[in-house]
């Protein structure tokens, strides 16, 4: 589906120079001299290359619609992650690189949304948050109660996270899968 450059929104997937790209930034600019344009930042889905482009309002881009489907994570096999379709029980494998750094938060049986374009897996997205257990945490430093201070802790998957002073080893916390940050203490 063709759309005008001024109709692009953050999160849209478009075809640009023969590659699939996600729109990560758009801004309508009206300089004092010359015509208005749309400043965009596009990130290539396959290789991660970023493009900063100026498009005129009259320019047209091809918007691509991806099919999203939930799959259940089964296991990791060398550099491949194996998922199962919830409806057909068909198994598919993807490279660990597709998930990037959030691969550390995969848990057995987790439901992950896989995005397809023309039958090929383009991207995968984990749930926004996961519940993890603290393996080890630094002791509380006395005298740091005046302001909200954080201390380093290590999760069961080996990821380092900054947590509030009252969190100790063995506690379960909610972690943001996008950036690995502490959200809150898990409800038991």
Task: Tell me what you see in this structure.
With 188 residues, the chain is mainly beta. It has 3 domains: 2-64, SH3 type barrels (Roll); 67-125, OB fold (Dihydrolipoamide Acetyltransferase, E2P); 129-185, OB fold (Dihydrolipoamide Acetyltransferase, E2P) (Beta Barrel). Helices cover 0% and strands 54% of the residues. The protein has no helices and 16 strands. The chain has strands spanning 2-4, 13-16, 19-29, 37-44, 50-56, 60-64, 67-77, 80-85, 91-95, 111-117, 120-125, 129-137, 150-155, 160-164, 172-176, 182-185. Strands 1-6-2-3-4-5 form a 6-stranded antiparallel sheet, with no helix packed on it.
Key words describing this protein structure:
SH3 type barrels, OB fold (Dihydrolipoamide Acetyltransferase, E2P), 6-stranded antiparallel beta sheet, 0% helix, 54% strand, flat
Q: What is the succession of H and E elements?
A: EEEEEEEEEEEEEEEE
Q: Predict the CATH topology of the largest domain.
A: SH3 type barrels
Proportion of strand residues: over 45%
Rg of Cα set: 21 Å
| Shape assignment | flat
**What is the CATH class name of the largest domain?**
Mainly Beta
| Mean of pLDDT | 85
Q: Order of strands in the sheet with the most strands?
A: 1-6-2-3-4-5
Count up the helices: 0
Oligomer: single chain
Range of helix content: under 10%
Number of domains: 3
Q: How many strands appear in the DSSP assignment?
A: 16
Would you identify the CATH architecture of the largest domain?
Answer: Roll
């Amino acid at each position: 589906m063709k759309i005008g450059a001024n109709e692009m929104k953050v999160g849209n997937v478009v075809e640009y120079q023969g590659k699939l790209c996600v729109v990560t930034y758009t801004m309508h600019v009206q300089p004092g001299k010359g015509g208005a344009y749309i400043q965009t930042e596009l990130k290539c889905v396959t290789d991660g290359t970023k493009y900063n482009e100026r498009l005129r309002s009259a320019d047209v881009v091809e918007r691509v619609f991806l099919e999203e489907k939930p799959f259940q994570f089964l296991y990791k096999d060398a550099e491949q992650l194996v998922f199962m379709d919830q409806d057909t029980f068909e198994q598919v494998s993807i490279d660990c690189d597709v998930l990037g750094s959030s691969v550390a938060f995969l848990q057995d049986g987790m439901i992950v949304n896989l995005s397809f374009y023309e039958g090929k897996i383009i991207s995968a997205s984990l749930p926004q948050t996961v519940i993890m257990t603290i393996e080890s945490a630094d002791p509380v430093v006395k005298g740091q109660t005046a302001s909200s201070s954080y201390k380093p802790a290590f999760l069961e998957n080996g990821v380092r996270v900054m947590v509030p002073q009252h969190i100790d080893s063995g506690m379960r916390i909610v972690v943001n899968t996008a950036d690995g940050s502490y959200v809150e203490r898990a409800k038991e």
